[in-house]
Design goal:
About 25% of the residues lie in helices and about 40% in strands. A hairpin with a 2-residue loop joins strand 2 and strand 3. It has one domain: Gcn5-related N-acetyltransferase (GNAT) (Aminopeptidase, 3-Layer(aba) Sandwich), CATH 3.40.630. The protein is α+β, with helices and mostly antiparallel strands and about 100 residues long.
Length: about 100
């Protein structure tokens, strides 16, 4: 994460990664899991926080959590796909 007051949490019950600053939700990434593949159909930053790089911070956390769990990512969301494409260090996480 780029700032100590930001954190990405995996809300397993909601199938959603959540970026928070303290208790405030900044962004979300919905997901589903099939075996070892995490499909991400949707990434969103709250309107009042758009344009500040928070979606990238959220994806940084998603990548970290997915990697730690030995899974791969199938990015359906155009933002998630672009993020992975633009970060070569994540290419090993893209599901085939």
């Amino acid at each position: 994460m780029s700032a100590p007051d930001l954190s990405v949490h995996d809300d397993v019950a909601a199938s959603r990664f959540i970026l928070r600053r303290h208790a405030v939700v900044i962004g979300i990434a919905d997901y589903s899991v099939n075996g070892d593949v995490v499909t991400i159909p949707y990434v969103e930053t709250a309107p009042e926080h758009r344009g500040n790089g928070f979606a990238a911070v959220l994806m940084d956390g998603v990548v970290e959590l997915v990697r730690a769990n030995g899974r791969t990512i199938r990015p359906i969301c155009s933002y998630a796909a672009a993020y992975l494409r633009e970060h070569p260090e994540t290419h090993d996480l893209v599901a085939r």
